[in-house]
């Protein structure tokens, strides 16, 4: 993201300075963690411990080694290994942190709340991380290859990321793509299924259960029953065919064709392992049902006016699907009424970014709340039920706020490539930015929770503030 300063637009640095001055007012808690290498993905793992004032929880992120020749050279030169990092995070509980403390952080320092627990040396860059809902110690990763890599992060040995270090061995490799599958990756909430999309314009589904079944029936073979490519004993992961000769592989349960260009994101229906959706560079949103075959159930031809980057399915209302696009908008679709006149007919279009949207995600706690992050360095929090109602948008100019927007997180100074709501800790979000263009390299990881006065019911908040009315007037 370039410096977007200009007429009426503050520069990135000016915006950041203004944001930091407001941290004690807008946030209940915030941790800022400098990353030497950028991370393209961040995900919460299992909660480990509950204490009086804070909880401890696993966090998955990556370190994307870049060539030392230039901060803009994304491909690694091979000297520094790419890593999948398992960290332990201390998450301060609500209404514990002192307001004056949470804004006193050094942008160049690592946070005391984030401690590296284990390092896995990953074959190639870690583009996407997804945890298995049934067992969040199992994660899948995408790299610049056709394969999906499965890791048991607790069983994997801790490695040191030194020059020339050998790659860690994946616990399982999922084969089936005919070209690189770099970003589109999802895990099923109801059963151990994995979904992926790639440059081969295909959506591919696997069952991790096939690996367990094949071990039970034939301990020597890595072939899964009925899978054409399950007998492969090597992988193209990381661009080498002999690196993981010992890793078992399984082939897909199904391959689904319908996109005309690269598939950029996929998502399961929260209530079914057989229903899923995908979006791609063909501007299409496609709904699938594995029970009806490998062709689309419903195809939205022009869901956006540009490439689609991301999609998410509402866990509380399975009719609602979010999409984010290079056209800078987020759109909400109702699957009961997806199209009109052959083109996408969204329930609402959310326009609060001025660059390509990279990630959208529904809140696990509120059915109407979701977040969106973009190349403009902003992470917006929306509530679609607020559309058409009187509202105040925190962190934005009230006179110029988009409908539904009620909080803007402006703590990143470059593109926010990923974020994840914490299902164990309501309203707590981890977000990560790739700071290569703004600071010359590295990234920023932030764990934050807005102050509860922003999202609690208005009557409840006013009643609480009324109790402190005299104190507030004295301070004023």
Rounded radius of gyration (Å): 22 Å
Assign a percent range to the helix content. 10-25%
The count of helical stretches stands at 6
Superfamily at the CATH H level?
YVTN repeat-like/Quinoprotein amine dehydrogenase
- Quote the distance from N terminus to C terminus: 39 Å
CATH class: Mainly Beta
Strand order of the largest sheet: 6-7-8-9-13
Report strand %.
Answer: 35-45%
* Mean pLDDT across all amino acids: 88
Category from helices, strands and their pairing = mainly beta
Number of domains: 1
CATH fold call: Methylamine Dehydrogenase, Chain H
Structure notes:
The chain has 476 residues and is mainly beta. It has one domain (33-67, 78-208, 248-392, 399-471): Methylamine Dehydrogenase, Chain H (7 Propeller). It contains 6 helices and 31 strands. The strands form 8 sheets. The protein has a 5-stranded mixed sheet, covered by helices on one side. A 4-stranded antiparallel sheet has the order 1-31-30-29. 48% of the residues are buried.
Task: Briefly say what this structure is.
This protein has 476 residues and is mainly β. The protein has six helices and 31 strands.
Secondary structure layout:
Blueprint: H1 12-26, E1 27-35, E2 42-50, E3 54-63, E4 82-92, H2 99-102, E5 114-122, E6 128-132, E7 135-142, E8 148-152, E9 172-174, E10 185-187, E11 193-197, E12 202-207, H3 208-217, E13 249-250, E14 254-257, E15 263-268, E16 275-280, E17 285-289, E18 298-300, E19 308-313, E20 320-325, E21 330-334, E22 339-340, E23 343-344, E24 348-350, E25 357-362, E26 369-374, E27 379-383, E28 405-409, E29 416-421, E30 428-434, H4 436-439, E31 443-450, H5 458-467, H6 469-475
Parallel strand pairs: 9-13
Antiparallel strand pairs: 1-31, 2-3, 3-4, 4-5, 6-7, 7-8, 8-9, 10-11, 11-12, 12-14, 15-16, 16-17, 17-18, 19-20, 20-21, 21-24, 22-23, 25-26, 26-27, 27-28, 29-30, 30-31
């Amino acid at each position: 993201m370039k410096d977007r300063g200009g007429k009426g637009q503050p520069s990135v640095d000016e915006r950041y300075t203004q944001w930091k001055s407001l941290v004690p007012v807008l946030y209940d808690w915030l941790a800022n963690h400098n990353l030497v290498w950028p991370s393209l993905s961040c995900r919460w793992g299992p909660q480990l411990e509950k204490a009086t004032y804070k909880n401890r929880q696993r966090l998955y992120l990556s370190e994307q080694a870049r060539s030392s020749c230039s901060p803009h050279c994304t491909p690694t030169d091979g000297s520094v290994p790419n890593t999948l990092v398992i960290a332990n995070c201390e998450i301060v509980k609500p209404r514990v942190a002192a307001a004056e403390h949470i804004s006193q952080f050094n942008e160049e320092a690592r946070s005391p709340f984030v401690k590296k627990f284990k390092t896995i040396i990953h074959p190639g860059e870690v583009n996407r991380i997804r945890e298995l809902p049934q067992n969040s110690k199992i994660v899948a990763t995408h790299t610049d290859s056709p394969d999906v890599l499965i890791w048991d992060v607790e069983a994997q040995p801790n490695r040191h990321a030194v020059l020339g270090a050998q790659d860690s061995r994946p616990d399982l490799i999922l084969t089936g793509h005919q070209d690189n599958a770099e970003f589109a990756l999802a895990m099923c909430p109801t059963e151990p299924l994995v979904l992926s999309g790639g440059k081969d314009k295909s959506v591919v589904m696997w069952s991790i259960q096939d690996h367990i079944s094949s071990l039970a029936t034939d301990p020597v073979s890595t072939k899964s029953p009925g899978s054409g490519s399950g007998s492969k004993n090597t992988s193209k992961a990381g661009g080498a065919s002999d690196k993981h000769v010992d890793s078992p592989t399984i082939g897909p349960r199904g391959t689904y064709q319908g996109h005309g260009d690269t598939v950029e994101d996929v998502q399961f229906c929260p209530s079914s392992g057989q229903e899923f959706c995908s979006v791609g560079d063909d501007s299409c949103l496609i709904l699938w049902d594995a029970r009806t075959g490998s062709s689309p159930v419903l195809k939205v031809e022009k869901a956006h006016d540009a490439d689609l980057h991301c999609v998410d399915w509402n866990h509380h209302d399975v009719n609602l699907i979010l999409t984010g696009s290079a056209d800078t908008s987020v759109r909400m679709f109702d699957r009961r009424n997806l199209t009109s006149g052959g083109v996408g007919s969204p329930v609402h279009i959310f326009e609060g970014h001025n660059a390509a949207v990279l990630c959208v995600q529904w809140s696990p706690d509120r059915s109407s709340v979701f977040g969106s992050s973009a190349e403009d360095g902003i992470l917006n929090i929306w509530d679609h039920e607020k559309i058409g109602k009187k509202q105040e948008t925190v962190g934005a100019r009230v006179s110029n706020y988009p409908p539904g927007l009620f909080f803007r997180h402006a703590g990143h100074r470059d593109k926010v490539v990923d974020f994840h709501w914490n299902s164990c800790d309501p309203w707590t979000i981890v977000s990560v930015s790739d700071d290569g263009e703004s600071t010359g390299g590295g990234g920023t990881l932030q764990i934050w929770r807005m102050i509860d006065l922003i999202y609690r019911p208005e009557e409840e908040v006013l009643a609480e503030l009324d109790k402190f009315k005299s104190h507030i007037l004295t301070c004023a």
